[in-house]
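Complex record, two chains
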Amino acid sequence: MPSKEEIRHFIAKRVAKEFQDGDIVTLGIGLPTLVADYLPPEKHVTLQSENGVLGVGKTPAPEACDEQITNAGGKLISLIEGGCYFDSFSSFNMIRGGHINATVLGALQVDEKGNLANWVVPGKLVPGMGGAMDLVVGAQKVIVAMEHTNNGQPKILKKCTLPLTAAHEVDMIITEKGVFRLNANGLTLIEISPLSSLEDIRSTTEADFKVNLKNQ
Amino acid sequence: MIGGFLKCGSPTSVISYLLKNKTNHLTLIANDTSFADSDKGRLIAAGLIDKAVVTHIGMNPETGKQMHAGTLKVELVPQGTLAERIRAGGAGLGGILTPTGLGTVVEKGKEKINVDGKTYLLEKALKADVALIYASKADKYGNLSYKGTTRNFNTVMATAAACVIVEVDELSETPLPPNEIIVPGLFVHYLVLKKDPQNAE
């Protein structure tokens, strides 16, 4: 059994394969941040961060760190060649205006109608939505990257029970068990990971889904 | 209004002054409530804020604690919506129409408007009595320039308050080069030099 950390990296690695050459991508906080480590070198993918950076580079060496250059998580970053800084409303012009090709976000729950819940557990955890609601509405492609279950409980549901981040906006779900596509036809399993099987996915997924494993 | 994204680009010396003076019963409009021991987060921890209009409170346990105790009112706003509401306030607009928040609790109590077959939420403009913002450099004309990711909400807040107080790392003796000016001086009322950029808290 791979460790939790290995599973998170496994998911991040699979997410990175979704990007096309030239894509502008905004990564959410948490697991999605790991995707930056697996960007395909043969493709030019540019990372945007909603606090006001286009062209987020690798974590700089301690001596090169500048506390006035951060990502949305407050981590010190570097800028790639051709990168730039801007203010919050320019950042959300990019995000809400449809100029971001893909966003990757974590989820507490996601359902077969493409609804996403990832910003609040009433009475328990109230971090706030930050930029997530705008990202999910505005990005051309919304990829949910998450562990398939939470303490054994399914997270891919028939209907989200937590307050939504956005309705009908999720295009793809990638977990350690497989890859699902979401569109007007509902939820379709398109890939089963080597860590899982169809029976395993059926028993850990509450939502109804079709199976269409074209590429396997 | 207080600029800054977490600590980055925050007017930390002015915040320290509010703490020292115990200026209270404030409404905070900001991106976040930061950490309990950092920048604007300290105002929450000190109990000086009655209401916070912010996008994220997850890093500051004090915010959640006071919210659940009922001593702090929190209005959570999507980040892009907050930026546009402030922009509208500064631009003389009544509000903006956005698809963000449709189908979520954010739409509660708000008017929905259909434009050419698409539904939007009406989000009203935001203005403040005072904006406390940051800039890397200013000249004596109030023109501001920024380094790195410090712009965030500072530039838009500069336009949307009756009184705009800017904390700067450096006050330039000579006018800033016109091509480097990010915020024109007409928005700025007061300049304050950051006490010690390395140890500003």
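Note: Residues 37 and 65 of chain B are 15 Å apart (CA to CA).
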